[in-house]
């Protein structure tokens, strides 16, 4: 059949038939891929007649939205009858009356929030409306200064050591780091994802969670909530003291054995009688959690095979209160932001979050990434997401609930792959990453809801905007107060020379590296090239050419560091170089603060590299000096 009908349906369904790749080359998605994805979206397309019928169904589904979004102080288009009366109800039941203008729009609304418009033809429930501020809550808002020069540390939670963490890290380890950062004058501790996970399989990734609305109980720090005596009493009763000591001596996380030990401890803790005040707090937590918590713990109990929702209810309370205490102590220590959470881009398609919103998720499709400079074959992440149609039909309820969960009692949130608000690379489950297609999302609606919840929670928003970004998107995000991320090794001119710090973005967070990239020490010696050569990732490698290129890049960085007034030979000067950025917030990864050579994760690798398993060294005696130097460098930069 002619491709015209297929392409028209694909476009109506939000699929980008034509797109531009990492090399700026135009690409067209194969018809076989379009058919496979459309079939997964339950849009039959084998014949022109089926395409036409599916397109008509789409048009019917895309009628009046369940929730409209708008911005303060601008007319709100709701297709009302011109001149007809309406009543505007806010969240507290307060009413304002008015009349639709000649275009059927509401008059401007000055106060951000959620509203209902009662009018002729809108039914008893009326028209649901979310009115957003013009931008997200900012670092300047949080710090109370116009040109902040805040800084903090990025921490892989599992990597921080404490005596009772079973080798897998916990909130106590994060608190220890928060105290040291705060003592040096820092304002933030950015965490790796701490979402609820499914029972651990052979491989672990914090970016493949079961449910992003809830916590991973493995990171609970019992002593923070229950006190040292009760925590150790349960540990002794379970006979776990020697096992934890053995696990803690390991250089790498033992996810399987560590998780088993932690759950054994959690079961022993749950069997203890709680003091009256803590028992009351547990009951209050359960009441506040409502049906969402009950649904989650019921799923988790079945998924774990223990059939004990009460255990998972208790574990969620312990984890939530642990992180609540870390944030409280971080702010009390002087941090102006405190914890920055990390929101994974998707979830396990067979996990609790997918089960909670079955009508709103993509079925038969998973997320990935098209081929790029780092992964010639693209990436199939194996995680799911919400469907654009499902989000609209639900009034964006899953997205709003998610934002409220990850922003609650946090100073900020880093959104992984912020491009996902605009488009996501989807492919049939089990298919090749190269056989995918971009799926468009309701960007304007999602961005307005992000700004609204950011202000309501007083939470700064950081959007990971690395890789191929459509022209103009960074500017749009910046205008809405979403900070990008400037990474030292990528912040260059077109010819490869490094930008001086003064030319880094003021609308981004400055950092030296990320969990998916080499540390600065590792980059300088080509440790990432060693791994690529060993594992064969990213295609064949001409090691001599790669080494020559890396030597040239190191020399380029050294030249710019010298121009910035630093000692080009020392890693400390490289860190200071990034700290001099005018960014409102600079984040120093813990690995770079400690001068480590190995990176936390090697993308595209399942075997051969200890992804998400590297623990920080036991000796961190030189950390305080590194933090002090970074703080000094932040003070030297140009606002």
UniProtKB/TrEMBL annotation:
Highest taxon of the lineage: Bacteria
GO MF terms held by the record: 4-alpha-glucanotransferase activity
Record's keyword annotation contains Transferase: yes
EC code: 2.4.1.25
Glycosyltransferase listed as a keyword: yes
Transmembrane segments: none
Enzyme class of the recorded protein, top EC level: transferase
Reaction equation(s) it catalyzes: Transfers a segment of a (1->4)-alpha-D-glucan to a new position in an acceptor, which may be glucose or a (1->4)-alpha-D-glucan
GO biological process, one term: carbohydrate metabolic process
Any single Pfam family the record assigns to this protein: Glyco_hydro_77
Family designation: Belongs to the disproportionating enzyme family.
Record-given protein name: 4-alpha-glucanotransferase
Organism per entry: Pseudoxanthomonas winnipegensis
């Amino acid at each position: 059949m002619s491709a015209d009908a297929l392409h028209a349906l694909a476009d109506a369904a939000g699929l980008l038939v034509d797109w531009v790749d990492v090399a700026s080359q135009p690409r067209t998605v194969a018809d076989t891929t379009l058919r496979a994805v459309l079939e997964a979206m339950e849009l039959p397309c084998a014949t022109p007649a089926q395409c036409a019928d599916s397109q008509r169904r789409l048009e019917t589904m895309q009628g009046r939205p369940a929730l409209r979004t708008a911005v303060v102080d601008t007319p709100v288009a709701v297709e009302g009858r011109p001149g007809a009366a309406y009543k505007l109800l806010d969240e507290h039941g307060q009413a304002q009356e008015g009349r639709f203008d000649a275009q059927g729009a509401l008059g401007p609304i000055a106060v951000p929030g959620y509203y209902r418009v009662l009018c002729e033809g809108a039914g008893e429930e009326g028209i649901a409306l979310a009115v957003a501020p013009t931008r997200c809550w900012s670092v300047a808002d949080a710090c109370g200064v116009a040109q902040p020069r805040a800084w903090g540390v990025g921490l892989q939670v599992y990597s921080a050591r404490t005596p009772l963490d079973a080798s897998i890290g916990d909130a106590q380890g994060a608190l220890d780091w928060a105290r040291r950062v705060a003592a040096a004058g820092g304002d933030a501790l950015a965490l790796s994802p701490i979402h609820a996970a499914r029972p651990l399989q052979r491989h672990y990734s914090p970016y493949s969670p079961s449910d992003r609305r809830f916590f991973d109980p493995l990171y609970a720090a019992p002593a923070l909530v229950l006190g040292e005596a009760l925590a150790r009493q349960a540990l002794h009763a379970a006979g776990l003291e020697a096992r934890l000591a053995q696990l803690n001596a390991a250089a790498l996380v033992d996810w399987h054995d560590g998780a088993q030990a932690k759950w054994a401890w959690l079961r022993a803790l749950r069997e203890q009688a709680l003091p009256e005040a803590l028992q009351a707090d547990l009951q209050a937590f359960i009441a506040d959690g409502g049906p969402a918590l009950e649904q989650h713990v019921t799923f988790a109990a079945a998924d774990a095979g223990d059939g004990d929702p009460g255990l998972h209810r208790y574990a969620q309370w312990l984890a939530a209160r642990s992180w609540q205490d870390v944030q409280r102590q971080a702010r009390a220590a002087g941090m102006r932001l405190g914890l920055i959470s990390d929101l994974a881009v998707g979830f396990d398609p067979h996990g609790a979050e997918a089960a909670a919103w079955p009508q709103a998720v993509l079925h038969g499709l998973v997320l990935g990434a098209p081929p790029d400079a780092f992964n010639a074959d693209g990436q199939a992440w194996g995680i799911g997401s919400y469907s654009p149609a499902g989000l609209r039909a639900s009034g964006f309820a899953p997205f709003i609930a998610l934002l409220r969960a990850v922003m609650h009692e946090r100073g900020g949130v880093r959104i992984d792959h912020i491009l996902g608000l605009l488009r996501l690379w989807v492919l049939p489950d089990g298919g090749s990453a190269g056989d995918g297609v971009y799926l468009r999302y309701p960007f304007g609606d999602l961005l307005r809801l992000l700004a609204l919840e950011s202000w309501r929670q007083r939470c700064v928003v950081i959007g990971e905007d690395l890789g191929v970004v459509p022209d103009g998107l960074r500017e749009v995000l910046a205008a809405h107060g979403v900070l990008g991320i400037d990474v030292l090794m990528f912040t260059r001119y077109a010819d490869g020379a490094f930008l001086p710090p003064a030319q880094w973005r003021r609308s981004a967070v400055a950092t030296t590296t990320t969990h998916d990239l080499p540390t600065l020490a590792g980059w300088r010696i080509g440790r990432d090239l060693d791994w690529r050569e060993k594992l064969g990732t990213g295609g064949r490698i001409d090691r001599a050419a790669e080494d020559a290129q890396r030597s040239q890049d190191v020399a380029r960085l050294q030249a710019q560091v010298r121009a910035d007034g630093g000692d080009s030979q020392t890693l400390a000067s490289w860190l200071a170089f990034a700290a001099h950025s005018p960014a409102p917030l600079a984040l120093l990864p813990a690995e770079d603060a400690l001068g480590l050579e190995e990176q936390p994760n090697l993308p595209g690798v399942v075997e051969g590299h200890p992804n998400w398993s590297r623990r920080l060294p036991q000796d961190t005696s030189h950390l305080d000096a590194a933090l002090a130097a970074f703080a000094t460098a932040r003070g030297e930069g140009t606002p």
